[in-house]
Design brief:
Layout (H helix, E strand, L loop, with lengths): L7 E4 L3 H13 L6 E4 L2 H8 L6 E5 L7 H10 L5 E6 L4 H9 L3 E6 L4 H8 L2
Parallel strand pairs: 1-2, 1-3, 3-4, 4-5
Helix pairs in contact: 2-3
């Protein structure tokens, strides 16, 4: 996926995570069209017109949980890659993510440089 053409959408209700991810991506020197959202509904509105984006979403969102967001996203024709991140990996969430073919990866926060490279090179 060419990151300069398709946006990288980060969905997290923690604005500190937005700053951290922006800094880490910039330090890696990766040119990417970054879009940050703290409300799932706003991200869904944006992604309705951008079906090939790469999405990194926190598992626990303010206005809906990530599983509901994922269902809504794919029901509107999303064709990109979707990654989940969380600050505390609960085994049942890990199993659910691994069993869901729509989820391209499940990572613990904060995302490391190695994980970001893995996601952005996918």
């Amino acid at each position: 996926m060419n990151q300069s053409d398709n946006p990288l959408v980060v969905l997290d209700d923690d604005k500190i995570m937005h700053l951290l991810l922006r800094k880490r991506i910039n330090l890696l020197g990766i040119k990417s069209n970054l879009k940050f959202f703290d409300q799932a509904s706003e991200a869904l509105d944006f992604l309705a017109g951008t079906p090939k984006a790469l999405v990194i979403s926190d598992l626990n969102l303010g206005d809906m949980e990530a599983w509901e967001f994922l269902d809504s996203l794919f029901s509107q024709g999303f064709q990109g890659k979707f990654y989940l991140m969380t600050s505390s990996i609960i085994n049942s969430d890990l199993v659910r993510a691994n069993d869901d073919s729509r989820v391209s990866g499940f990572f613990e926060k904060p995302l490391t440089e190695d994980v970001l490279i893995q996601i952005l090179d996918a």
